[in-house]
Amino acid sequence: MPEIDATDARLLLALTEDPRASVMALSQRLGLARNTVQSRLARLESNGVLGPLDQRVRPEALGHRLAAYMSVQVAQRGLAEVSDALAGLPEVLEVTGLSGATDLLVHVVATDADHLWRITEAVLAIPGVQRVDTALAMRRFVERRVGPLLHRAAGPPPG
Questions:
Q1: In the prediction, which pLDDT does 1 show?
Q2: What's the rounded Cα separation, in Å, for the pair 123 and 116?
Q3: Average pLDDT, the chain
Q4: Helix extents (H) in the chain
Q5: pLDDT range class, residue 51, cuts 50, 70, 90
Q6: Which end of the chain is more exposed for a tag (fewer CB within 10 A), N or C?
Q7: pLDDT digits (tens, 9 = 90+) for 82-116
């Protein structure tokens, strides 16, 4: 993942504040040429700096109001296969490899407790999964965010 400079950070902050801003509006706001903004946005997208748009959609809006985190222990040489199988479950939002006793942290969503039970059974049925511990997410105190890091990277306002 390439690092971004202060201009990229200012551009991303402007997009955060107005995600539907046109290239022309962004160029005027930031005091940059339209072509500069357009090429920087294209580079940020192609380099994977900008994540997929579907990450902005809240699962609750799709009826998945129950969130949980599964700690999954996997047979040591089966991480890739288990991760691929987890990616095939629509309710799996994210899978993170960890160090320590837990191999994978799996963020899942469900419509209700019965649905979560079925998801757990599906995870346990994946070859290579040895153990699953599930913890319900009760309340989110800090939303996933990058804004404070972008502000730091952007530095003081120009001028």
A1: 65
A2: 10
A3: 94
A4: 6-17, 23-30, 34-46, 79-87, 113-124, 147-154
A5: confident
A6: C
A7: 999 999 999 999 999 999 999 999 999 999 999 99
Query: Is 128 inside any structural domain?
Result: yes
pLDDT at 158 over 80: no
Q: For residue 76, what are the domain limits? A: 63-136
**Which among 100, 69, 95, 98 has a CA at the least distance from the CA of 83?**
95
Distance CA 113, CA 136 (A): 10
Give this prediction's pTM. 0.84
Same domain, 72 and 40: no
Dist CA 151 CA 39 (whole Å): 21
